[in-house]
Amino acid sequence: MQLALIRHTRPAIAGGLCYGRLDVPLADDREEAARAILAQLTEMQDAIIISSPALRCQWLANWLAGQMHSPPIMIDPRLQELDFGDWEGSRWDDIDRTALDRWAASPDDFTPPNGESMRALRHRIDQIWAEWMCDRHNRIVVTHGGPLRILCAHAAARAVDLTVFSPSFGSVMRADIPPDVRTPESD
Questions:
Q1: C-alpha angle with apex 153: 128 to 97, nearest 5 degrees?
Q2: Mapping DSSP to helix (H, G, I), strand (E, B) and coil, where does residue 50 land?
Q3: Is this model's pTM higher than 0.85 or not?
């Protein structure tokens, strides 16, 4: 099974903004970035293209599908970024430092006000991975930094570390998943 795990292209927003589920526009260089991504997918013509429901992901997934003459993309809401709740749209510098410190001390268990915990994000992505390991289809996946940290760890058969930096915008992580890899180990 081949996977291409792709982070959406660069958004057109000011740096330092918390925007997990917030729909933000893409930067003007999105087509140039999309062409660079497409060049890395030449042997994946038979892959299913799956996207987060965020418009910044759907744009890239639809663009790739059009260029690859593939069937319509599939949208999976479980590929959404972490829900930062009341923090969405705020500058990170404006979020209560005590709350950020509590999150850093316990990233799996802390939940931003009216948001979701990283444990919930991991659960969503673990479900997707288990399904993929059952059907074994080649996939091109367009999603966000949070889900990609988990998917890349599963693809590399290593422990998930949600404190590592997210893959860069427009990056493609390729993985060939051997037949004996099935589901992640539970924590």
A1: 95
A2: strand
A3: yes
